[in-house]
Amino acid sequence: MTSVAPITSNLQFRHKLVKDEKTFYNIKSKKFESDVSEDSSEEEQVIEYVDEGGVFIQESPKGEKSFMKKHEIPRKAFHSFTGFFTLWLYVNGYNQRQLVQPMSLMAITCFMQDFIRFRVPSVNNKLIKLYSSMMRESEQNSYNGILFFLIGIIITSSLLPKDICLMCNLLLSWGDTSASLIGREFGKYTPKLSANKSLAGSMASFATGVSCCYLMYGHMIPKYHYLVDLPNDIMWSPQTSTLNIHCFAIACGLISSISEFIDLWGMDDNFTIPVLSGSFLYTLVHAFKIQT
């Protein structure tokens, strides 16, 4: 293999493609997501296998990313859509347990797809191109966030009451999205709470959590409860809790912010947010439940 010494200038570029007589490598900056700003993300150089062929070098300037890719618009749109889909499932009478089997099949499919692409570079290259608008650079050689999203929702759907599960989905879908978008845009104007979390992002997550609580327990459940819910489906109600809806909404906002903020050993937040928020919500509602 020819020397890759010329790549020392990589600090100025997001990508540099280096190809020798047999192997095509992609030498780039690996970015970690930050809700503070796009430019504040940590970076490290990585070398990843791309393809086979002759000698070729191509440089892509750091500012080359499109607005859609830079701000992850397709990814955030999909994230937000899952929240509306959750509401559609609720008003049409679906129970969260009914979703466990199809989501498990989807999770197995995603796992097998990633398992294969990690071992077959040509497949990996094609899938990276296919999902380029949705896939982060850090996911090109690691398991996709969709897999962790599915695993997190499978766990909450299997273990938690219907209303808590609904709230977990909304906090993941809308709370995490708002924290990321607001944090990236306005995080530079507010104090940083950690290396990649800002006060602006946490405030957005808090406001979204409060809004989701009022939406679910102040509108959706009262309107559709007698049409779509079975006995014991709904864990929190004004009649069964010493927490009024306003205190509960504030608690939901705090839980949304805390779940989004906590970093569990670098685990994907698509997994940690629903699991943590579900655990916190269940514990809170159970603690203030009126004993009969």
From TrEMBL:
GO terms for cellular component: endoplasmic reticulum membrane. One of its GO terms (biological process) is phosphatidic acid biosynthetic process. Coiled coil: none annotated. The chain crosses the membrane at residues 141-160, 199-217, 243-265, 271-288. This is CTP-dependent diacylglycerol kinase 1. The keyword Transmembrane helix applies. It comes from Debaryomyces fabryi. The keyword DNA damage does not apply. InterPro entries: Dgk1-like (IPR037997). It comes from the Eukaryota. One of its GO terms (molecular function) is ATP-dependent diacylglycerol kinase activity. Keywords: Membrane, Transmembrane, Transmembrane helix.
